[in-house]
Write a structure and sequence with these properties.
This protein is mostly helical and about 150 residues long. The chain has one domain: Globin-like, CATH 1.10.490.10. Helix content is about 75%, strand content about 0%.
Length: about 150
């Protein structure tokens, strides 16, 4: 799959600079993300069995890779696909990506406050959509393989 991140240079700069702002408060961002995520979809709480600190580290690591990867998104695709396969194995389903996007936007808005402009929200939303599309496609391929293997 060829990822097509249609962000202007200004939108990329907005996402990247906002990431660097939130990277100064990783525990807060992670806490706010997961609180929002579990409010939006309580079923996800049972799927998130890992230590919450480890999940927060993983979240910030992925956001860092995404923000940095906006300059060459094709290099990020294999990382996203691997992440998708792990999430699929844990039981993450298609609709969960929408909840994750909403939770991320909520956490960003809460912590960036006045810096969370409509333009920044739109830029992050576009990034989330592309990331979710790649991960959904990979999960669908994994499901198809599982179905094929179960027939044999």
């Amino acid at each position: 799959m060829s990822a097509n991140v249609r962000l202007s240079a200004k939108e990329k700069q907005l996402v990247q600079s906002s990431f660097y702002k939130i990277s100064a408060i990783p525990e807060t961002i992670a806490r706010d993300f997961y609180q929002s995520l579990f409010l939006l979809d309580p079923s996800l709480e049972r799927l998130c069995k890992a230590d919450s600190e480890m999940q927060g580290v993983g979240l910030l690591k992925m956001l860092h890779l995404i923000a940095r990867g906006l300059d060459d998104f094709e290099e990020l695709i294999p990382v996203l696909k691997e992440c998708s396969r792990r999430h699929h194995a844990f039981g993450i389903e298609d609709g969960h990506y929408d909840a994750a996007e909403a939770a991320l936007l909520n956490a960003l808005e809460k912590n960036l406050q006045l810096d969370f402009t409509p333009a920044l929200k739109q830029a992050w939303s576009q990034v989330c959509c592309v990331v979710a599309d790649i991960m959904r496609e990979e999960a669908a391929e994994a499901e198809a393989l599982e179905a094929k293997d179960s027939l044999h």
